[in-house]
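Shape matters. As here.
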Amino acid sequence: MQWCLKSFNELSNIEVYKIMQLRVDVFVVEQDCPYSDMDDKDLDANALHLYAVDADKIACYLRILPPGCSYPEMPSLGRVVTAQTARGTGVGHEMMSRATQVLDKSWPNLTCHISAQSHLQGYYNQHGFTAVGDGYLEDGIPHIGMERPPAGT
């Protein structure tokens, strides 16, 4: 398993293609949720793309967004996805551990906010996130806001 952390401009055409392919395969096809995945947040100059490659395929992916991109004063994680073939292997948990390390290094004093699919609350709880506010529908799928305070607080 090879881990990569890159800005959008550092990604090759093939990497962008494979990342988008995984996101569409899971979020649009598997979850039967037609929506526009291209929201310009990938292009933010300070956004980071974290992913693992196994046997020339993207096993999991997420993007790390700076404050002001999704939420005015908080960084965020988004498009958290694990390929169907990699689920249950622990790679998703390793990815979240790596992502929280990036958050703690990049924004050591800021809380991270995410919009999580409600059925994944337990997964995010394991990485220090707790539910905030009421649940809501996003693209027809139940979601909940979750936050993780800075490390050491």
